[in-house]
Amino acid sequence: MTTPTAKKHLLIVYHTQSGNTGQLAEAVWRGASLESESVETRLVRAADGQLEDLLWCDAVLFGTPENFGYMSGMLKDFFDRTYYPAEPYELNRPYGLFISAGNDGTGAVRECDRILLGYPMKKVLEPLIARGEITAEHLASAEELGQTLACGLSMGVF
Ligand SMILES: Cc1cc2nc3c(=O)[nH]c(=O)nc-3n(C[C@H](O)[C@H](O)[C@H](O)COP(=O)(O)O)c2cc1C
């Protein structure tokens, strides 16, 4: 008789104002859910996210639009609320990013990375930057991002 192994936990934290990052987040969730036998995935709006979500997860994907060359205010608010409360736990979780941007996205990536380094968390995947209207290709890349992190988690790669 084999003992069932406990599922790993993948958290997706995102904000969307006009829906584009939301489309990516749902695609990331769909991709991660392909590994649902071994990984449980939670999709959480940044405004609702809590320290408990970070403590629950084994890995995390953050999604945000780029606003004024930065992450959205709501994702920043999530970081503001959880950064110091998380400090004693030395989270060290693997993470990835997905960004929706008009024409850039690099500022949001850079500034998220700066903050996440301090939690501390470790970046394990290249960020997905979807520029302009969300396309089928962006959605396919987002699904792949979710599945890759979930798969790596279940195989113990990260
Ligand atoms: C206030 C505001 C500021 C923005 N600043 C940038 C920016 O600095 N760089 C960029 O590439 N796009 C910028 N955009 C475009 C958004 O990143 C883009 O429309 C994105 O798809 C919105 O995502 P959402 O639908 O998830 O809210 C900005 C949009 C708004 C509303």
Summarize the model shown.
With 158 residues, the chain is an alpha/beta fold. It has one domain: Flavodoxin domain (Rossmann fold, 3-Layer(aba) Sandwich).
Walk me through this protein's architecture.
By secondary structure, the protein is of the alpha/beta class. The protein has one domain: Flavodoxin domain (Rossmann fold, 3-Layer(aba) Sandwich), CATH 3.40.50.360. Helix content is 42%, strand content 22%. Helix 1 crosses helix 5 (136-155). It starts with 7 loop residues before the first strand and ends with a helix. The model has no long low-confidence stretch (mean pLDDT 96). The structure holds flavin mononucleotide. Flavin mononucleotide is lined by residues 16-22, 65-69, 100-105. InterPro entries: Flavodoxin/NO_synth (IPR008254), Flavodoxin_CS (IPR001226), Flavoprotein-like_sf (IPR029039), FMN_Rdtase-like_dom (IPR005025). It comes from Pseudomaricurvus hydrocarbonicus. Residues 10-158 form the Flavodoxin-like domain.
The percent of residues in helical segments reads 40-55%
Structural class: alpha/beta
Question: Which molecules are bound in this entry?
Answer: flavin mononucleotide
Care to count the β-strands?
A: 6
- SS strand fraction: 15-25%
Order of helices and strands: EHEHEHEHEEH
Count the DSSP helices.
5
Unreliable stretches (pLDDT < 50, length at least 5) are none
- CATH architecture level-2 label: 3-Layer(aba) Sandwich
Kindly provide the radius of gyration, computed on alpha-carbon positions and rounded to a whole number of angstroms: 15 Å
